[in-house]
Amino acid sequence: MKKNTTMKHKVLKDIFGHNSFRELQEEGVDAILNGQDLLMILPTGGGKSLVYQLPTMLMSGISIVVSPLIALMQDQVASLKAQQISADMISSAQSRDEVDEIIQRAYDGELKFLYLSPERLNNQSTINMLRELNINFFVVDEAHCISQWGHEFRDDYRALGNLRENFPKTAICAFTATSTNLVTEDILRELRVENPLLLRGKIFRKNIFISLQRRVGGQYDQLKAFLSRHKNESGIIYVSSRKKAEDVSIYLNMNGYKSLPYHAGLPAHIREQNFKIFVNDRVNIMVATIAFGMGIDKSDIRFVAHMSLPKSIENYYQEIGRAGRDGEDCEVLLLFNAADSIQHKRFLSDIINADYREHLGQKIDQIYKYATSEICFHKQLAEYFDNSLDECSDRCDNCIDDSAKRQSITKEAQMILSAIYKTNQNFGKNYIIDVLRGSKEQKILANGADELSVYGIGMHLGKKEWFVILERLLELRILDVGEFSVLKLTNSAIDILKNKKEVLIKSSRLQIEVKEKKIKRDSELEYDEALFENLRAKRAEIATKLGVPAYIIFSDKTLKNISADKPKDKTAMLMVNGIGEKKFEQFGEAFLEVLTKLS
Ligand code: ADP
């Protein structure tokens, strides 16, 4: 046992470059070394890959990894190769000859890892081929795809249920970042695992600061203010349609940013090209639809912005999870308003299966509730995934600064409700705001709205403030939206009008302008910034030469560690967290050269 422990730590440092295990990693590694089935639920960036990669290095056979996306597999294979570990993949992207060659290498015992797409396992010839190999264990990555209650259900993942039957003696290890209790039960049942070790990490991603604002008027102003906090950093902006991806990207490029669009409407080769340019840091912003999904392993993404409400908390959590996989601080922003959830619900009417339609409807309600709630966002996410967490206190908008300050907007609410009532509940948001602000627009005057007692009584607030208050009334179900986006009063509106109830809003929510906020940086490390930039440039040069993503060589965090420690020779370099023998052999000297030149 002692020998095993020493070996584990040696492999951890020499091959993977890490000085210590992260939470739950060692327990997972031990289970695999003991041949036990495993389900590990660990947030994105938690370090799941290491849990199956490390034991493989201590075992004699080959580990088979099932992964839902070619991009994911390519990334993992490239990353293993950078550590001089033999790995390859079989997917629909390869020719017959290429596949034959890979299979031959597997037969010859030359591969430690073989990545397979799930549809391959539906195929009897693949099963026969696998039977000839000395398999350590199976890995099912992104295991939530097997569950219908997850958000990324994939039909071809169903075939994985046959693994146990075909390979009764081989352990199955499943991994996912997002799993509610319902999804967890589904995974265990579908994979038919036996007495598995269930390891569930804390859902809290402390290095992510969660920001959230109601989207008002010129939405790009809010985005620009956010981006000004993240100059030259890598980030993703999620939008709801292909056209928006193009529009936002053009807008940003015209305003001095460097961005590219990514969506399913682009030809595959352009998508791939844009992806590569982003991954190699030649453009720092990707404006994407959800098509830019699971395959994104770029570890130094410093921000993720959503321009509208995602369709579920699972989607949102996965998408924001792409930020800060390297453990460094990052910020995510959600811009949304009530119209987003109404729009999502409209699309549901096309779904024939009533249960499924209802299920998706609930998911939209849950994310809308999350966005409009004034409870700590991290806590809400943890509870959604059946975890528990105290309020983060300083890692989300709901917790920072004036967390306790609320103000009354009862008077303004009454003005809005009266205006809606006096215009016979026949108009939408803009019209009501125009009435309150005494607009001289033709449609207002033509209807005689300027003769109403409510006309012009709301001059003390700007259009945007009124918009936020209206949104708050929708959230609290004091208002409802009818056909043609017409505002309707609900029963609660009567209580407000009769002064029986107050309407409150968190003061920070009423502030529309994005104030310069000081986000507390948790893992602040003192390092030489000029040196860091030089090391990054060296990394980009090597990455371009080798045709691999820059972060596969060294993560930003590792480069920062080097810029802090300033090692002078190999021994000192190997002490840096993130650098192991294998990586040093390939890249160490090139980086040492930069260090000596600048010292
Ligand atoms: P996940 O698959 O859970 O999202 P990854 O396996 O991609 O996470 O790991 C995320 C990052 O964390 C990678 O950059 C990886 O090198 C790093 N990492 C993994 N384990 C450790 C560790 N024990 N110490 C330091 N960094 C680690």
Walk me through what this model shows.
Helix 16 packs across helix 17 and helix 17 crosses helix 19. Helices cover 45% and strands 13% of the residues. The protein has four domains: 199 residues, Rossmann fold (3-Layer(aba) Sandwich), CATH 3.40.50; 193 residues, 3-Layer(aba) Sandwich (Rossmann fold), CATH 3.40.50; 117 residues, Winged helix-like DNA-binding domain superfamily/Winged helix DNA-binding domain (Arc Repressor Mutant, subunit A, Orthogonal Bundle); 70 residues, HRDC domain (DNA polymerase, domain 1). It has a seven-stranded parallel beta sheet, sandwiched between helices. The protein has a six-stranded parallel beta sheet with strand order 8-13-12-9-11-10, sandwiched between helices. Strand 15 and strand 16 form a beta hairpin. By secondary structure, the chain is of the alpha/beta class. The site of adenosine-5'-diphosphate has 17 residues, from helix 3.
